[in-house]
Amino acid sequence: MRKFLFDTTVCVEDGDDFVDRLARAYREKVRPQCLCCDPAVPMYIADIGDQLVIKRMPLTGGRHDPACTSYEPPYELSGLGPLIGGAIKLDPSAGTTALKLDFSLSKRGSTARDETGASPADRVRNESKKLSLRALLHFLWHESGLTEWTGHWSGKRHWWQVYHHLTEATRLMDVRGETLAERLLVPEPFRADEKTAIEQRRAQKLGQLFHKTNGPNQLMMLVGEIKEFADARHGRQVVIKHMPGFRLCLEEPAWQSLQRRFEAELMLWQSTEASHLMAIMTIGGTPAGITTINEIALMTVTEQWLPIENAYEQNLVERLARLRSKSVKGLRFNLSRTQPFANATLLETKPLPYALFIVPPNVDENFETALQDMIGARPDLTPWIWRVSDGEMPRLPGAGNNE
Ligand SMILES: [Zn+2]
User: Fold this and answer.
1) Which residue segment(s) compose the domain that 355 sits in?
2) How far does residue 86's CA lie from ligand 1's centre (Å)?
3) How far is the CA of 169 from the centre of ligand 1 (A)?
4) I need a surface site. Which of 156, 168, 265, 303 has the fewest CB within 10 A?
5) Residue 402 included in any domain
6) Could you count the other beta carbons within 10 Å of the beta carbon of residue 8?
7) Same domain assignment for residues 174 and 289
8) How much distance in Å is there from the Cα of 382 to the middle of ligand 1?
9) Do residues 256 and 267 lie in contact, with contact meaning Cβ atoms separated by under 8 Å?
10) Which pLDDT does position 359 carry in this prediction?
């Protein structure tokens, strides 16, 4: 149970008057402090779809006590570590992050190029200086708390929650002096009785794509769940869930390139009924009023909306999803597919949290060296390693964590 300081009053989460105090603090813009540590850790109050919740400020998870629910495993264990201070800069006083992007938000001319290959996430260049599309999606997922899971949440995470947490996270991120929320559309959970209002809000937000200017055309970003890549005369029509009747145009060369680069994501999605395929894209508008995709990246997530990048991770996440104890899924961000990272961490194991690593078959010596370095640098976590070529996944650490 977390304890907070509101100005000079100490409150226990779930205490009798907590909801009232929270509402008052939100109105009066009081910043709560989490008292798990000394000094206390500043937090903020977010309005998540009519419910007030206390969230940690960006990139402050490591400052909480490991027993606090706001604690996060060290960023060096995932692809987030190398980006902090470069591609992602924290403004501690404002509680926001400034992001540098490795893709363009404007475009000259109206012909779509094959842009999916323009920023391959697997290359080494710009590893720490700028975020690829995929890395931005990973950062959004991470900051939204969607990488965290406990079995207590089974059946309780739907698009409604995903949408609200993502939207909240975009308000705390800046891109070239503008909040990301201004330039990124996350489709609202669709309701037939609100169809007109939802479509109006969307059209207003996307309006800037169709304003004619003398300079380059502005692009926006969209994060949504793929419903289908429908056949079109040339290329594909991309249909996003919660956007009925809305079509995005993907030209044939970009579609070909997408299938090559995201083959694993597409296969995971097609082979598992309950999975979701998330897309992040930059989109533009044509004078004829058509919305086109400029660049796109994909991420497969499980039924619990936890990201997975191959069948091994899928196996691991399926097991973690059933645990009562809390796990955090690690993400690759800009790291290439040949580099290790902690695929997940288990936070409630005693005496130390566990970092879980998967060693895929056919890795080279560099992978092993990097893995040993990563483990050696964090004596505050116990490593658990699944070497896929050795066979079955070992038992998960922690009492009661194995059926
Ligand atoms: Zn705390």
Assistant:
1) 311-390
2) 26
3) 19
4) 156
5) no
6) 5
7) yes
8) 22
9) no
10) 97
**Ligand 1: centre distance to CA 5 (Å):** 11
Phi then psi for residue 281, to 5 deg, are -150, 155
Whole-number Å distance, alpha carbon 31 to ligand 1 midpoint, is: 14
Tally of CA atoms within 13 A in the half-sphere of 390 that contains its CB: 7
387: left (phi over 0), alpha (psi -120 to 50) or beta: beta
Same domain, 143 and 52: no
Which pLDDT value is given to residue 101? 96
Residue 118 has a pLDDT of 41
Site of tokens 């669709």: 190
CATH assignment at residue 331? 3.40.1350
What integer pLDDT is reported at residue 201 of this predicted model? 96
pTM of the model: 0.92
Distance 75 CA to ligand 1 centre (A): 17
Question: What stretches of 352-392 adopt beta strand conformation (E)?
Answer: 354-359, 382-387
Contact (Cβ atoms closer than 8 angstroms) between residue 185 and residue 221: yes
Q: Say how many Å lie between the CA of residue 44 and the centre of ligand 1.
A: 12
CA distance 206 to 201: 9
Q: Do 99 and 170 share a domain, yes or no? A: yes
Ligand 1 centroid vs 68 CA: distance in angstroms? 5
Residues 349 and 292 in one domain: no
Tell me whether residue 401 is in a domain.
no
CA–centroid distance, 370 to ligand 1, in Å, is 31
The single-letter DSSP state of residue 96 is E
CA of 11 to the centre of ligand 1 (A): 13
CA of 4 to the centre of ligand 1 (A): 9
Residues (pLDDT < 50) of the chain are 111-125
**400 in a domain, yes or no?**
no
Closest CA to 240 of 170, 183, 307, 190: 190
Tell me how many domains the chain contains: 3
Distance in angstroms (rounded) separating the CA atoms of residues 151 and 396: 15
Cis before 120 (ω within 30): no
Distance 6 CA to ligand 1 centre (A): 14
Residues 250 and 348 in one domain: no
Ligand 1 centroid to Cα of residue 32, in Å, is: 11
Whether 291 and 368 share a structural domain:
no
Within this chain, do residues 20 and 55 fall inside the same structural domain, yes or no? yes
Dist. CA 347 → ligand 1 center (Å) = 14
In a domain, 214, yes or no: yes
For position 264, what pLDDT does the model report?
A: 96
Distance 168 CA to ligand 1 centre (A): 20
